[in-house]
Amino acid sequence: MQTESIEKCGALRGEIRVPGDKSISHRSVMFGALAQGQTRVRGFLRGEDNLSTLTAFRAMGIAVEERPDGELLIEGRGMQGLSEPADVLDCGNSGTTIRLMSGLLAGQRFFSVLTGDRYLRRRPMGRVLQPLAQMGAQIWGRQQGQCAPLAIVGQPLKGLSYQSPVASAQVKSALLLAGLYAEGETRVYEPHLSRDHSERMLRHFGVTVDSFAGGVSIAGGQSLQARDLEVPGDISSAAFFLVAALIVPGSELLIRQVGVNPTRTGILDILRAMGGDIRCLDERELGGEPVADLLVRSSTLKGIEIGGALVPRAIDEFPVISVAAACAEGTTVVRDARELRVKETDRIAAMASVLQTLGVTVTTADDGMTICGQETFQGGQVDSCGDHRIAMSAAIAGLCAGTALTIRDTACTETSFPGFWPLLAGLRRQAV
Ligand SMILES: O=C(O)C1=C[C@@H](OP(=O)(O)O)[C@@H](O)[C@H](O)C1
Ligand SMILES: C=C(OP(=O)(O)O)C(=O)O
C-alpha cells in the first residue's frame, strides 16, 4: 500500500497549473458521445474516474482517439447511437459516472449493468433511481434499489416534475439526461443551486435548457451537435494549493486557468471570509465556462460559520476547508453538510480523525463539524480511508506539522488529481 510522509516546509512560491475539471471532463465524453459528429476536447482530465467514463462509452461503441498532445477526439453517434455493452460497465470509484449514466441508460433500447468499487457500491443510488422510476425507468439494484450493481432495462420514458430533497448535480444531471429521451418536459427543483456544468454544456451542444429560480427544465426529443471544448483547471484540485499557500507563512502562488463557475466558487467565498488573500486575475470564458488565474498569498485566517446555500458550492472542498479551519484563530462551525457523509467515505468522520491525530480539537455533528483552530500540529499516522480528497487534505495539513505526518493509502489521489504528489514535492523542494 502506498504511503506518503509530509512535514513542515518553507514558503511555497511560484506558478502552477492543476489538471482539468473532473465534472466537465465526464460530461465532455457523455455529451460528445450523444452528439452528431466529432467533438474535440482539450484539457481532458485523465484521472481514474474520468477513465471509467471513457471506458464505459467505448464499451457502448463510441470511438475515442487520445492524441499524443492529450486532446480527445470523440466520434459522436447521435442520440440513438450507443450500442448494448457486452459486459458490466465498471464505474470504479466515480459517483458522477454511475449516477449520470443511470439516467442516460434508462431511456436506451438495450440492457445494461453498472457497478463500481467497494466504496461506490456503498453509496446511495435511490436518490436517482426513485425519480427515474417515476419517469418509467426499469432499474434494479441491491438493497431495494439503494446500491449498485444496478441492472437497467431501457424503456420509453415520460417527463417528470421533481423536487429533489438534496442539492445534487448528479441527481439533476441524471434526470436531465433521462429527460432528453423522455416524452414531454422534465423539470427538476433543488433546495439550493448545485453545479450547473450539465446545463452549460448542453447549451454549448445546441440543446435548450431553461434555468429558473429553484430549478431547471428540459424538453425531450432534442439532439446534440458536436462542438469543440476546452476543459478549465479543476477548482477542487486548486483548493489544496490555495489552502497550502494560505497556511504556510510567506507563500505566494499563482494558479493558472482555473474554472471559476459561480456554482463552484464557494471555496473562494469561504477562504476570503476567513481572511484569505485570494485574487481572481484575467477572468475570461472557455466554452461556456468562466476561468481565471488565482493569485493566493499566505494570510492570517479566522474561524467562521458555514452553512446553507454555500455548502453545495463547495461540497468537495470541505476536507481541505477543515484544514484551513484548524490553522485559523478561533472556531469554525460547518452545518448543513450531511452530504459529506455519503461521499467516497464519510468525510466528516474521516477528517475529524485526521485532525484529531494532529492534536486538533474537533467535534462532529450529523451534518457538520466544529473545529478549534490552533497554531501548529503534531505529526503521526493517518489513513486516507481510500478517499482521494482525504489523502490530499491530510498532505496539506502535514505542511504545518512539527514532526512528520505519514498518510496511508495514498494511491487514491489518481481518482481526481494525477500528478498531485510530484507537484507538491516540487513546490516543497523549491520552498524558501
Ligand atoms: O455532478 C458532478 O460532477 C459532481 C457533483 C457532486 O456530487 P453530488 O451531486 O452528489 O452533490 C460532487 O460532489 C462530485 O464530486 C461531482
Ligand atoms: C464526491 C466526489 O466525486 P464522485 O461523487 O463523482 O465520486 C469527489 O470527487 O469528491
From TrEMBL:
Coiled-coil ranges from the UniProt annotation: none
Entry superkingdom: Bacteria
SUPFAM superfamilies for the chain: EPT/RTPC-like (SSF55205)
Class in the EC hierarchy, top level: transferase
Subcellular location: Cytoplasm
EC number: 2.5.1.19
Binding site for phosphoenolpyruvate: K22, G95, R123, Q170, R347, R389
UniProt cross-references to Pfam families, sorted A to Z: EPSP_synthase
Enolpyruvate transferase domain: residues covered: 7-422
UniProt-listed CDD domains: EPSP_synthase
CC terms in the record's Gene Ontology section: cytoplasm
Catalytic activity, reaction form: 3-phosphoshikimate + phosphoenolpyruvate = 5-O-(1-carboxyvinyl)-3-phosphoshikimate + phosphate
Active-site residues, Swiss-Prot/TrEMBL: D316 (proton acceptor)
Binding residue positions for 3-phosphoshikimate: K22, S23, R27, S168, Q170, D316, K343
InterPro entries associated with the record: Enolpyruvate_Tfrase_dom, Enolpyruvate_Tfrase_sf, EPSP_synthase, EPSP_synthase_CS, RNA3'P_cycl/enolpyr_Trfase_a/b
Self-association and partners: Monomer.
NCBIfam families assigned: aroA
Role according to the record: Catalyzes the transfer of the enolpyruvyl moiety of phosphoenolpyruvate (PEP) to the 5-hydroxyl of shikimate-3-phosphate (S3P) to produce enolpyruvyl shikimate-3-phosphate and inorganic phosphate.
HAMAP family: EPSP_synth
Family: Belongs to the EPSP synthase family.
Cited PANTHER family: AROM/DEHYDROQUINATE SYNTHASE, PENTAFUNCTIONAL AROM POLYPEPTIDE
Name listed for the protein in its UniProt record: 3-phosphoshikimate 1-carboxyvinyltransferase
Taxonomic source organism: Desulfuromonas thiophila
Gene label: aroA
